[in-house]
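Mods, move this if it's the wrong board.
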Amino acid sequence: MHKLPPGCEKVVGNALDARSYLNYIDPATVFIHLIGVAHPSPFKKINFRQIDLASVQEATIAATKAGIGTFYL
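Not the wrong board. C-alpha cells:
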C-alpha cells in the first residue's frame, strides 16, 4: 500500500460491507476490485463464496452508487 500511484488514496473499510467505504468513493471512470482468497482452488469454494463473491457484490453496490463507469475484477 505504500506504492500507490499519484492520485490514489488508501481507504480502510470492510470489503464485505459497502457502507464502510461508500462515502470514500468519488465518481470516477474505473473501480478496481482487488479482494480475494489467496491461491483459489476447488477446496476453497466456501471461502470463495464468503469472501470473493460477497466482496464483489458489495463493491458493485458501492461502485454503482458512486457513479463508476467501469468495474474490473
